Amino acid sequence: MNTQGNVVSAEEAFAKKAERDLISAVKNGDKQAYKQLYELHVGQVYSLCLRLTSDKGLAEDATQEVFIQLWRKIANFNGESKFSTWLHSVTSNITISYMRRQKGWFQRMFNIEDSEAMHYEASASTDAVDLDSYISRLPERARIVFVLHAIEGYRHEDIAQMTNMAVGSSKAQFHRAKQLLQEWMGYE
User: What's residue 110's pLDDT?
Assistant: First the structure.
């Protein structure tokens, strides 16, 4: 049984033990174990990076940065939470920090109204466009807050801390993102 009183299958128990053993090996400097850990999680990390950055090149670079930092900081993982939960939080923080360091970040942050997304014409066939393409059109701050809150489940207090903005700003950016998405998707 797990902590919630649910029965854990033998397969789940084996997978958890295998991951714990892998993490332990990585903490001891085992590069082969690190490669296996990378292969297990690179898809999820890249997906989150892509949603946050809305740019394939930046997402690839941020994913690389996450795994570089993972090698350096894996000792900080204490096993109190699931590894995937910890990695998700690390990925969000590193990606946001990485984006800040990129050329033009401050310009994009403070000139939101001038972004291409604000002038982008909605496609005539909204059924053919998926939610991710709409999300990628959002202004950067609104997109980051929307992804972290609506998709990844972070609280506004956590988002405010991760992005160095006020809680009220996080809520306002989320509201703005929702309004834009509803407008673009024809739900006015």
Answer: 45
pLDDT tens profile 133-157 = 888 899 999 999 999 998 888 999 9
**What's the rounded Cα separation, in Å, for the pair 152 and 156?**
12
* Contact by Cβ (8 Å): 143, 135: yes
Same domain, 81 and 140: no
Q: What count of other Cβ atoms lies within 10 Å of the Cβ of residue 44?
A: 14
Residue 148 · residue 134 · CB < 8 Å: no
List Cβ<8 Å contacts ≥24 apart for 33-37: 34/71, 37/70
Question: Which of 45, 74, 102 is the endpoint of a domain?
Answer: 102
How far apart are alpha carbons 1 and 16 in whole angstroms? 13
Divide the 188 residues of the chain into consecutive groups of 10 and give the mean pLDDT of each group.
60 81 94 94 95 91 94 91 90 88 55 43 45 88 92 91 93 94 80
Burial string for 78-108 (b: 16+ CB within 10 Å, else e) reads eeeeebeebbbebbbebbbebbeeeeeeeeb
